[in-house]
Amino acid sequence: MFDEPLPSTSSLARIPELRWLRNVITERALTRGDYLLSGGARSDYYIDKFKLFADPQVLRRIARLFAPIISEINPDVIGGTELGGVIIATAVSGMTGLPMIVVRKQPKQYGAFAAEYVEGPFNAGQHVLLLEDVVTSGRELLAAKARLEELNLRVTPHAIISRGLAPVSSLIQFSLPRDSGPRTN
Fold this sequence. Notes:
Blueprint lengths: L10 H19 E7 L5 E6 L2 H4 L2 H9 L2 H7 L3 E5 L2 H13 L3 E4 L14 E2 L7 E9 L3 H12 L3 E9 L6 E5 L12
Parallel strand pairs: 3-4, 3-6, 6-7, 7-8
Antiparallel strand pairs: 1-2, 4-5
Helix pairs in contact: 3-5
């Protein structure tokens, strides 16, 4: 399934990898300022995940962090939410050999599958590991989960980063006290 040895599924074995993730977020993707987040909340920091995803080595390492989750839940399909979740799902799908589906925020307006939210191969009853990049409230990820459940799929949502109180599992909980840390605009 993977072309390299998998990281240990032990929580203790994952601590260095999660520490690495926190450090790479802080060093490469964190900016301080006054930001409007996608859910409408304001924040004094922003995580630009595309600064992480643009580096293929970082993207691959983040994708590998999902190996223990995949081993635990044994999904049939990897799903990605538009837009950042699709990047992660593509990387995880490529590493595992599991097929991938995309869940759009709005139905597609053109082509052979107009008016559909979900693209890619799936069958009712399959288990989907639905991936998202950064969540604050989890609203978009939970909406995507509901769309998949309407298609009779079993869904386990998971994010890379949770920066809020979203009722969603994530690799890392990332929050900063107001006005602390580096300011890089």
